[in-house]
């Protein structure tokens, strides 16, 4: 996703148009003040505030997808901008005494903007909590945006190693690691095409997350291989979880773009820590995975 | 000119380079930034007119790696590369009747199938070894190029043969910080810090027939590909053409002057041309001698003394010293490492 601004071009146009309208209205009814009457310090202060509030609005637009929270935040900041903007124009333009709308623009839009912004921040907070809940099984305690995988909404093998090392260091209880591998994914990708192949991996990752506990962590190891860290988990429980994950994947009826069903089968490999390092645990889980794969009849 | 050059624009941009462009585009990355400094424009590629030089392609790879610093990129690129939609050469690869046919495409037609690397096939009683060779001075992109080529060949041979071939992989570079990509995309038999970029397989896979191939289509495609090659250098680059000249006469290799004679240019001109291809005479000569020595040690079971004699060294001490200079290892240490590689192919 490159630039978010394109999504909001109508909102941006509305803000610019309103700003221009205020300017034109001021020029139409008022008269320019003589240079001697202009207070430059006020202009610098109010103009700076107007400029900053406008910049914040654009930052919001640039970083957020469209939606309620975005509308509240940007709307609030826009009204704050209008208030300062009228304030700045007052410094240049003398309006006749019978005109009152400028007070409404100046003093009315500031509280309105503040209320919208407050509502926006409140909902932003709730939205963030929802996102955190969603990310929980994908990133556990740490957030490290450099470790995001390019293809799926999971973290990569580097993050897996870091988290596994932390987990092994801090706990006396056994840590289990499950490796999950798609059967003949190379074949599937050629049959499905790259776009559907990539989507298959993304959707499978969603499915696997749904079958995990709150404390577990799912990463994409590489290619079509996923890794699940199960903190403080005995072998028996881990074997059960592994079976559940395999069953879930075996029942996954992936739909291609043409609406056809493409079934997948997976193999799993489990390793439970016995004072090993992250690397040796990963290696043992991988070896177990290979054994389970070579033991199965080949599916062409 | 004998063999294609690094800055010669002959690669249709809508062939192999476009696979990378598509891959990057799928990630939502701006194409103008990807095409920067390659001399390519989107409209030109779509019209099918644009041609890219090996250097231009390497620049494209450089840009792609910078825009998407994902260690999986080379492997995903490789897996999409072959057989591809590159006209006759794709038909040739797609109709390979066995592994030998498929490997011939890479050894004899590298100009058409993957111009950044050439390949040399060695077959002994027990093994086959496909040795990948730098065609145009890939420089800092060499690792990416090798990863893509190996992932591509492993993937296409698996697709065409219908089974997972148990390749062993040997790399000149050190073990990278992302071994999981090699493990999942290539396999578990991996050797880093080696002397060759090579893929090794038990010999019996070479002739076993593949399903779905058409002999007629294969022959017709070969007829169509042949005229696109160079009469002297075949599918090789200029650099590889000279390398093969040295390799064929490795016991008494031709001097720079002798190489220049049939090319009708002066040694100075040849020197300059070689520099443009990212190498020089001594480097090519050392490479040819090292590679041949390793082939004898690894696949033919020669002793150090035998190799020294074959390469016309006066004594084996001299040979050991030279070998150490070429490879950083003594022949004995190298032989031990090779034995470990080969041993894993045939576990007792």
Note the topology.
The complex is a heterodimer of chains A (300) and B (348).
Chain A: H1 9-29, E1 31-32, H2 40-63, H3 68-92, E2 93-94, H4 101-139, H5 157-170, E3 176-182, H6 185-192, H7 194-210, E4 217-222, E5 225-230, H8 235-250, E6 253-255, E7 261-263, E8 266-272, H9 278-295
Helix pairs in contact in A: 1-3, 2-3, 3-4, 6-7
Chain B: E1 11-12, H1 16-26, H2 31-34, H3 42-46, E2 51-52, H4 54-67, H5 73-81, H6 88-94, H7 99-108, H8 110-113, E3 117-123, E4 127-134, H9 142-161, E5 168-170, H10 179-185, E6 190-191, E7 197-202, H11 215-225, H12 238-248, H13 256-263, H14 267-276, H15 281-299, H16 304-310, H17 316-327, H18 331-345
Parallel strand pairs in B: 5-6
Antiparallel strand pairs in B: 1-2, 3-4, 4-7, 5-7
Helix pairs in contact in B: 1-4, 1-5, 5-9, 6-11, 12-15, 13-14, 16-17
Brief rundown of the structure:
The complex is a heterodimer of chains A (300) and B (348). Chain A has 300 residues and is an alpha+beta fold.
Structural features, described:
The complex is a heterodimer of chains A (about 300) and B (about 350). With about 300 residues, chain A is of the alpha+beta class. Chain A is about 60% helix and about 10% strand. Chain A folds into two domains: about 130 residues, no CATH class; about 150 residues, 2-Layer Sandwich (Alpha-Beta Plaits). In chain A, the strands form three sheets. Chain A has a four-stranded antiparallel beta sheet with strand order 4-5-3-8, sandwiched between helices. In chain A, helix 3 runs antiparallel to helix 4 and helix 6 packs across helix 7. In chain B, the strands form two sheets. In chain B, strands 3-4-7-5-6 form a five-stranded mixed beta sheet. Chain B has a two-stranded antiparallel ribbon with strand order 1-2. Chain B has about 350 residues and is an alpha+beta fold. Chain B is built from 18 helices and seven strands. Chain B has three domains: about 60 residues, no CATH class; about 150 residues, no CATH class; about 110 residues, Arc Repressor Mutant, subunit A, CATH 1.10.10.60. Chains A and B meet through helix 6 and helix 7 of A and helix 1, helix 5, helix 9 and helix 10 of B.
């Amino acid at each position: 996703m490159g630039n978010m601004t394109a999504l909001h071009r109508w909102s941006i146009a509305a803000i610019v148009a309103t700003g221009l309208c205020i300017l034109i209205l001021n020029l139409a009814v008022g008269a320019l003040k003589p240079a001697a009457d202009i207070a430059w310090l006020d202009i610098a202060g109010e103009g700076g505030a107007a400029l900053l509030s406008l910049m914040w609005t654009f930052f919001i637009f640039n970083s957020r997808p469209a939606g309620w929270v975005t509308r509240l935040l940007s709307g609030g900041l826009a009204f704050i901008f209008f208030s300062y903007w009228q304030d700045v124009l007052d410094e240049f333009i003398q309006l006749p005494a019978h005109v009152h709308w400028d007070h409404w623009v100046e003093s009315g839009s500031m509280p309105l903007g503040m209320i919208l912004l407050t509502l926006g921040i409140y909902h932003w907070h709730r939205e963030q909590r929802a996102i955190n809940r969603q990310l929980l099984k994908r990133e556990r305690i740490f957030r490290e945006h450099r470790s995001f995988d390019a293809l799926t909404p999971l973290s990569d093998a580097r993050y897996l190693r870091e988290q596994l090392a932390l987990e092994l260091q801090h706990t006396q209880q056994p840590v289990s690691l499950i490796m999950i591998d798609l059967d003949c994914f190379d074949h599937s990708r050629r049959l499905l095409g790259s776009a559907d192949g990539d989507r298959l991996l993304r959707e499978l990752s969603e499915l696997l997350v749904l079958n995990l506990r709150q404390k577990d962590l799912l990463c994409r190891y590489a290619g079509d291989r996923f890794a699940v860290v199960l903190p403080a988990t005995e072998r028996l429980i881990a074997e059960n979880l592994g079976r559940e994950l395999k069953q879930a994947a075996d029942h996954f009826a992936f739909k291609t773009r043409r609406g056809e069903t493409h079934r997948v089968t997976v193999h799993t490999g489990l390793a439970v820590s016995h004072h090993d390092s992250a690397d040796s645990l990963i290696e043992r889980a991988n070896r177990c995975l290979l054994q389970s794969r070579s033991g199965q009849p080949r599916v062409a | 000119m004998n063999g294609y050059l690094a800055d010669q624009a002959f690669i249709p941009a809508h062939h192999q380079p476009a696979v990378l462009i598509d891959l990057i585009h799928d990630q939502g990355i701006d194409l103008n930034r990807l095409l920067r400094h390659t001399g390519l424009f989107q409209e030109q590629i779509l019209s099918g007119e644009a041609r890219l030089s090996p250097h231009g392609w390497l620049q494209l790879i450089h840009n792609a790696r910078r825009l998407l610093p994902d260690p999986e990129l080379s492997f995903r690129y490789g897996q999409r590369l072959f057989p591809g939609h590159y006209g006759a050469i794709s038909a040739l690869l797609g109709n390979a009747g066995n592994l030998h046919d498929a490997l011939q495409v890479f050894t004899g037609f590298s100009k058409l199938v993957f111009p950044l690397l050439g390949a040399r096939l060695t077959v002994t009683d027990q093994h086959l070894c496909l040795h990948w060779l730098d065609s145009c001075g890939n420089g800092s992109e060499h690792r990416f190029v090798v990863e893509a080529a190996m992932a591509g060949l492993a993937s296409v041979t698996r697709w065409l043969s219908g089974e997972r071939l148990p390749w062993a992989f040997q790399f000149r570079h050190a073990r990278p910080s992302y071994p999981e990509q090699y493990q999942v995309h290539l396999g578990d038999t991996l050797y880093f810090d080696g002397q060759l970029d090579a893929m090794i397989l038990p010999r019996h896979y070479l002739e076993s027939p593949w399903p779905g191939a058409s002999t007629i289509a294969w022959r017709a495609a070969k007829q169509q590909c042949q005229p696109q090659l160079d009469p002297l250098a075949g599918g090789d680059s200029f650099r590889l053409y000279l390398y093969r000249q040295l390799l064929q006469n490795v016991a008494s290799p031709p001097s720079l002057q002798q190489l220049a004679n049939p090319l009708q240019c002066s040694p100075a001109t040849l020197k300059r041309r070689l520099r443009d291809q990212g190498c020089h005479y001594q480097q090519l000569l050392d490479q040819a001698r090292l590679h041949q020595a390793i082939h004898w040690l690894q696949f033919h079971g020669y002793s150090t003394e035998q190799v020294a004699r074959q390469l016309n060294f006066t004594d084996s001490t001299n040979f050991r010293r030279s070998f150490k200079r070429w490879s950083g290892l003594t022949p004995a240490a190298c032989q031990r490492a090779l034995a470990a590689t080969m041993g894993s192919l045939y576990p007792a």
